[in-house]
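Supplementary Methods, section 5.1.

A reviewer requested that the exact input to the structure prediction be made available. We therefore reproduce it here, unchanged from the version used in the analyses.
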Amino acid sequence: MTVCKALYFTAPRQVELREESLPALGADDVLVETICSAISAGTEMLIYRGQFPKDLADSHDSISAELHYPLTYGYACVGRVTQLGSNVDPGLAGRLMFSFHPHATHFIVRADSLLPVPEGISPEAACFLPNMETAVNLVQDAAPILGERVLVFGQGVIGLLTTALLHEFPLEALVSADCYELRRNASQEIGVTKSLDPDSANFRERLSAQRRFDLTFELSGRPETLNDALAVTAFSGRILVGSWYGEKRAPIDLGGAFHRSRIKLISSQVSAIAPELSGRWDKSRRFEVAWDALQRIHPEKWITHRFPLDQAAEAYRLLDKNPQETIQVIFHYT
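The structure derived from this sequence is encoded token-by-token as follows.
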């Protein structure tokens, strides 16, 4: 019998490790020993802070439809297959695999739910797969056009990945905005035209002094940022909203210039393929694009902190109290 340690969120801003005995393997199951897993500084921190809607049905990870404490959460585990069910291909033994599974030292899942990590991608880089898939989805939904002026609000992990993908397009300008200097510096290293602090004086005027933006991404996680996006997006432009705000609320100014602006507000979330693409695209094809992008972009350079799982409380306190010091925080299990 295998005993694992699993991370539980037990109340707002409280986490604990619990030892659990795993069940016997089913015929189609495998046992995975985790090497590393990534903390989501967006969705996962809403869980940590208790800011999530309690009736959420989330189709992207391995949690129940009804969120309530205590609960496990997380969706970026990388590990090796150590035991196989009787129906599982023996070739999977020892393979490096990605799983949309909450943080735990070991776990049992169906073999067909795992994604093999391609050769040349490290376990730490593979932890970025869910966020890279999200970034691919955001860019596909936005459909940038040759020569456009593009602005990305939010340079956390998803914002940086999205910006890195956009930098591969022949745009007239690519500008980013984030309230933390560490993340603006990372964005500038990608090669953006400029990166600005949205909380600085005259921010909107500095952005729209010449021309407004054809395409704006709102990835900051702050609902009030939509007001800045509306103010600096051009007539008939698009604003793609990739943030999930949970229970956070803010007044949005739709009574001014927006009424005549013909600006499109686009909701984008990774759990589904856009209807206009679904005849040619599926999750498998999108994962292939995401894996290729991980090999080009090497997002592991944005890992700022690594914690053993038994220091999880410290990791979450850091993200909660001092997010300006972090980009990606990783758990290690060895």
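The chain is about 25% helix and 25% strand. These observations are discussed further in the main text.
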